[in-house]
Write a structure and sequence with these properties.
Layout (H helix, E strand, L loop, with lengths): L17 H14 L12 H5 L5 H20 L15 H11 L12 H7 L15
């Protein structure tokens, strides 16, 4: 296959937009001898871009894994209904703890006096549930 020196990206977030995708593909089929599709659709930014460093993806996947473990531990209870939830602060802070070594960071433990002063448990979470990082 002869290379035409051109490339195209289909980074649409809504895969149901058929007219745009169809137009894009037809336009390239008429003008390019061959197209090598590296990725398309919603995962283009993960597959081809540099906007998601592996550390960020590790944090995201760890959040997802701990959330699934939390759901599994509480199956058959009334703790979680079939609804959308924000990740509990305890789990979010556990993800941070798990990644500290990668950042060469150390977490000091609050003393009872410090925890009492700011109104949290010594083990965390260290921010109120309404606080967003």
């Amino acid at each position: 296959m002869e290379s035409s020196g051109s490339s195209g990206i289909n980074a649409e977030y809504m895969e149901a937009v058929v007219s745009t995708q169809s137009t894009w593909k037809q336009w390239y089929q008429r003008r390019v001898h061959g197209v090598i599709m590296l990725a398309e659709g919603r995962l283009l930014n993960l597959g081809c871009a540099t906007g998601h460093p592996s550390f960020v993806m590790s944090c995201s996947f760890t959040n997802q894994a701990l959330a699934q473990v939390e759901l599994w531990k509480n199956k058959g209870t009334d703790k979680y209904k079939n609804d959308v939830y924000i990740l509990p602060k305890e789990l979010d802070e556990e993800v941070a703890r798990l990644h500290l070594d990668h950042l060469s960071a150390k977490l000091t433990v609050l003393s009872k006096e410090q925890a009492d002063y700011i109104g949290v448990k010594e083990s965390g979470p260290y921010k109120p549930s309404h606080y967003r990082y």
